[in-house]
Amino acid sequence: MSSLLVKGARLLGEDAADILVEDGVVREVGSVSAPGDAQVIDADGLVALPGLVDMHVHLREPGREDAETIATGAAAAAVGGFTAVCAMANTTPVTDTAEAAERILDLGAATGLVDVQPIGAVTKGLEGEQLAELGLMHRSRARVRLFSDDGKCVRDARVMRRALEYIRAFDGVISQHAQDTDLAGPQACCHEGELSGRLGLPGWPGVAEETVVARDVMLARHTGSRVHVAHVSTAESIEIIRWAKAQGLRVTAEATPHHLMLTTDLLAGYDPVYKVNPPLRPEEDAEALRAALADGTIDIVATDHAPHARHDKEHAFVDAAFGMLGLETSLAVISDLMVATGRMSWADVARVMSTAPAQIAGLEGHGRPIETGSPGNLTLIDPDASVTVDAARSKSLSRNNPWHGRTLKGAVHSTILRGRVTATGGDLA
């Protein structure tokens, strides 16, 4: 029997307690005497959360192993406090069959660092025309529940409707990358506004996101099915989502750490690390996102971890690839931005970074309360630690890290997957 005793961690009710995990399951919470052979973690001053879950990551394998592999992405996830991540389908080949989904599942399991749950494509080849093997992916060993053509919006309303009607039979979820490419334009690369005009960069209006969000909300209403809005970036999108929730529609939404903290003024230096899809928005949009995350309108934080090889990212801004890293810094950003400022509690963080994403994605072994009988998936946080981000230390293969050089308050101390420490002190265990 393997035993791990977390000694004196602060639980979400603010009281300190010991947590005994045996054979991957929480056996006791309270005042616990350590078995003689138990590994002991002194957690005095640390906060214990259910293991973090990221519902939106790009692991690039298969097809772009020069930017990331499932193994390196899993390492970054473990260091970042995650016990489960959902891998987007826009790989080469696309995850649009049961066999492809099972392959991602098996590669993730082989790392032993984090549970990797494949996200299935909505349409074959992400081409937006024919539905992918939605039912077969769900009935496979991968038990796919979450589907997305992320990177490409499901533009055809009729295809989106058919997909929603199909997945309703097994309570699936479609995560939509809301972007009307006709409104945005083929060269759009930053928020449309005064700054884009001054910099001479093709602008990307917020309405290109908002019209798709509004359409999908109404399709969710019509079909009674579940829509998840990926990486919300504008205040107007939030108002549409808030209306949908008030109507009782089955609509959920996510915000990324970078859209919560970073704003479009960073583009003044033309640094391509800040080129992301959807683009960074002005401060008023970022503030609306923070308020919506705090009040529950936005359900979860998801990183949209998007590694890129240097030969894809280090170009003139308009030519560089979209995306930035996020797995290793997500918790620290939310701690610094939302907890240290008093806008959210650690219980709120557990909700938006563990419980809710696990529930939306259907990950039954994750996001559970820390109590007897729960899986031993834990993230220990040092709320008082200050961390200065060093991109060179990243476990990711890529270096497109927008947080390099920033000092953030709050850090992951240890990550525990089914009672086994996978990462501690910013490195793999």
Strand content: 15-25%
The helix count comes to 13
Classification by helices and strands: alpha/beta
The spatial strand order of the largest sheet comes to 5-16-17-18-19
Task: State the distance separating the first and last CA atoms.
Answer: 20 Å
CATH architecture assignment of the largest domain: Alpha-Beta Barrel
Helix content: 25-40%
Shape by Cα distribution: globular
* CATH homology group of the largest domain: Metal-dependent hydrolases
Short synopsis of the structure:
The chain is α/β, with parallel strands linked by helices. It has 13 helices and 19 strands.
Describe this structure in words.
This protein is an alpha/beta fold and 429 residues long. It folds into two domains: 3-47 and 375-398 and 408-428, Roll (Urease, subunit C, domain 1), CATH 2.30.40.10; 50-361, Metal-dependent hydrolases (TIM Barrel, Alpha-Beta Barrel), CATH 3.20.20. Helix content is 30%, strand content 22%. It contains 13 helices and 19 strands. Helix 1 (70-79) crosses helix 2 (98-111), helix 4 packs across helix 7 and helix 7 (207-223) runs parallel beside helix 8. The longest helix is centred in the middle third of the chain and has 17 residues, at 207-223.
